[in-house]
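Example 3.2
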Amino acid sequence: MNNLISFWLAPVTALFHPHVYRDAAKSSGGRGVLYVLYLALIGVVLVMILLAGKVAPVTDDLAGWIQKNMPIVIWTPEGISLENGQTTATLNHPQYGLLATLDLTKTAVTEADMGSGFFYATATHVFIKRGPGQIESRDITRAGIQAGQQLPPRIRITGEIAGKLYQNIKSSMSVVIPIALFIIFFFAILLANLLYSLVGLLLNRGRKQQLGYGAVFAMTCFATTAPFILSWLQFFLPLPAMPWPLAVSILVSLAYLFFAFKLTDAAAEVK
């Protein structure tokens, strides 16, 4: 078998090359699982490219702006205060609007108080807006933290510290996100192909030379390549976004599956 054409280049050649399906018809289900792993890896790489090219620059600029404009906050086990002695401060981004508000005079905060911001802090609590009508409150005093060890008497929180925290989170996410995406993509593609293989079993019954389930599953994995590729093209081609309904993906996969079984059956008959 020519693995270059029928496996490594299959995300492209499966769209038009009969050799991909002829090789799959002679293989076991393990080839299908390996191909699912391969597609999951490609998906992770594509997502990371998108994040690096579109998301990271935005978050980096936002983190840099916050680092420069964030007021210096002093935390003690009793709560927080501002180093400049004021009781209120806001982070109002010129492009994204209100991001955060700090008001040491308040004890309770409502959604109206938060406005368009998603973060609000008082002297003893922080409030995070998770969504419309969903505000999470956290006690930042000694009573709320309940640390297992003695807390420091005073922490000076500057923009530089916030910047370092962002870089640490970014470094951690660069490891966590690819692993999580790989697991999600692998099981999602695998489950979809297991369902499609049920249709493959029905098509297999109409063949003159029937295949074992392993070969049916392998052919199914390659036949469902088209929706995977076409969906990703929407993100990378400089074209207006077009809807790609689930029903269309299913029909395209079934069409490729049908022709794959007919093609390999005809090839076997000729041989």
